[in-house]
Amino acid sequence: xxxxxxxxxxxxxxxxxxxxxxAGRVRNVLRSDRIVWLLCEHLLVNSKIKALEPFDWxxxxxxxxxxxxDMSRRGRCSEYFSASDIEIVRGHDLDFILRCGIxxxxxxxxxxxxxxxxxxxxxxxxxx
Length: 128
Prior knowledge:
This protein is an alpha/beta fold. The chain is 29% helix and 23% strand. It has one domain. The longest helix is centred in the first third of the chain and has 11 residues. It starts with 7 loop residues before the first strand and ends in a 10-residue tail after the last strand. The mean pLDDT is 80.
């Protein structure tokens, strides 16, 4: 993004807890009726997709303010920001928010041009 200025990095406080619970993810995979597919996907598919490789953003985001939000999930995919976090976002006077995932509620109206949301699809995974 050459012509855009990174103004705020918004992160979900729950993300660190999810990363820390690797044993829980392994347990869920082992209990899954799709274990063979999940193992093949991990070993054969994901390892070949360049877009899934880790990327270090630290140099590009150096000096950017970070807001760790208390988000809540409702339904299968919809996430909502707390009222206090929305007010902090408004205080940054953002043009837009670029988000990977589905957000709902008042956060959609917080930036000047709204929230631009990208919701990924599972790579080659059969429907559950």
